[in-house]
Amino acid sequence: xxxxxxxxxxxxxxxxxxxxxxxxxxxxxxxxxxxxxxxxxxxxxxxxxxxxxxxxxxxxxxxxxxxxxxxxxxxxxxxxxxxxxxxxxxxxxxxxxxxxxxxxxxxxxxxxxxxxxxxxxxxxxxxxxxxxxxxxxxxxxxxxxxxxxxxxxxxxxxxxxxxxxxxxxxxxxxxxxxxxxxxxxxxxxxxxxxxxxxxxxxxxxxxxxxxxxxxxxxxxxxxxxxxxxxxxxxxxxxxxxxxxxxxxxxxxxxxxxxxxxxxxxxxxxxxxxxxxxxxxxxxxxxxxxxxxxxxxxxxxxxxxxxxxxxxxxxxx
Length: 316
Description:
This protein has 316 residues and is α/β, with parallel strands linked by helices. It has one domain: Metallo-beta-lactamase, Chain A (4-Layer Sandwich). An 8-stranded mixed sheet has the order 6-5-4-3-2-1-14-15, covered by helices on one side. The protein has a 7-stranded mixed sheet with strand order 7-8-9-10-11-12-13. The radius of gyration is 21 Å and the shape is globular. It starts with a helix and ends in a 10-residue tail after the last strand. The N terminus is likely disordered.
């Protein structure tokens, strides 16, 4: 009899939790099909910041699918290798079989892990990277894929510009050309590699998107001091997944984003989220909000659709 009495509170608690999860699930609207409906893209610059689900020990990382007003496709970063299925599902939903621009912000596994699979599986116009070389297996895999498929490889550095389709200007603000590797590289190179991330701005009319890779605060401050107002952008891919290593105030002030997206498996640091939100930036985290669509007709205003609605105001 005593045993049954001890189990009862646990059973009641379990039932309450099951009911709570059921109610939450019923309230949680999933807009995946709406976000990945390509019929809304014509004449707009659209970025789809993907929610990636890691299936390995590595964090999932970043991947953004962009479509230009005239239908060109760019992918910036491609998560770790286990997240390829998420990227593939998104591309299939959009009906994409050709990737005109495949861009790597830097060669860490959570940014280029699925590059080899994309290169072998899709028609690729060209791969765009910085000149950083990183002697690891995932880096070698996609370099071998480039060679095997004879895919053009374009090296980007500060001062470079190119067109994404006929209407979107791409400017590169970082890193500077010419990299000096320290003795013993790549041992202990995490910050070194992150600070050489590609900083790239896409401008369509009066609208703009800034992609930052995993830049740390020391590089952010130098770039902000050098470029100032030229960094100003309506939409920001938050540096380093929203971690406390990044998003310094000089950089945030220089960019002045209206919309910011953190691609992360979790809330990296609540303080960073609140810094953006308290400044009036409409801020999203893919681990909570799911995939996020941001699009514009080039008039300086943005349409934003998140896959999920937040339940409660628990981040503030």
